[in-house]
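Troubleshooting log. The previous structure file for this entry was overwritten by mistake, so regenerating from the original sequence record. Sequence copied from the archived sheet and checked twice against the printout by T.R.
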Amino acid sequence: MDEIDKDTVISMARVFNTIKNNEADSDHVDIVNSALDKIWEGYEGDIINVNADNVCEKDVKITFEFLEKNSPSREEQMNYRANNDGERHPDRILSHIFEFVDLGSRYVNGCLPSFRDWEVTYICNGEVIEERVYDYDDEIPTSPIIDGVRYECKRTNRGNGDVEVFISKNPIREDVDIVINAKGNDFINLETHDGPNIQDRNVPINVLSDKFNWGMLGDTEIIINGNPDEVINFIESKGWEYEFEQNR
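Regenerated output below.
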């Protein structure tokens, strides 16, 4: 680990203390405390009482760049262990805390200020359909409107300053409450949308799950066991607009 000067150690202490003050997980707090001990070990002066209330973008940038330079990679840690009778890399804690500074604090509790942008790629069926740039503090839309159509997020992949958002092939519709994906003699599979007759697409899911025997396929998709005609009759009695998938 590089020697740490006074300005750098103060910035890093501000950042680490900010993370610690916003953490509820005791294991995470232990990691932050270990990282704090490590940076003060690399500083030749006396430990300074650092106020975390005034953390700024510059502090985050300084901390990020120091950790990026000094955090040992997984390969470096494995090689060190192999060449030093099984001992762990002395700077391994920097790699652990780097995740907190770069990703965890942005996405878990958002406690650190911005210092760079995120490049976001929206992917549908393996194809990139939209690329955007968001400020580091911005909320990255996971139900984006692309070409006037809103899509639903299935999962995300977050990297070093970039985010891949994998979205559903079927956009979220506003003209229908329920789409029936499939039905047989003793089941019906349906998905809720942001239709004209509901305020929240979770409402029909909750109502149907109270009424019928069911299994969940996702937050807004449900398979109901039983006579599908009874389910459809119930949907009609609620005034919900529905449509069969094959008619889309």
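The first helix runs from residue 6 to 21. Archived copy saved in two places this time.
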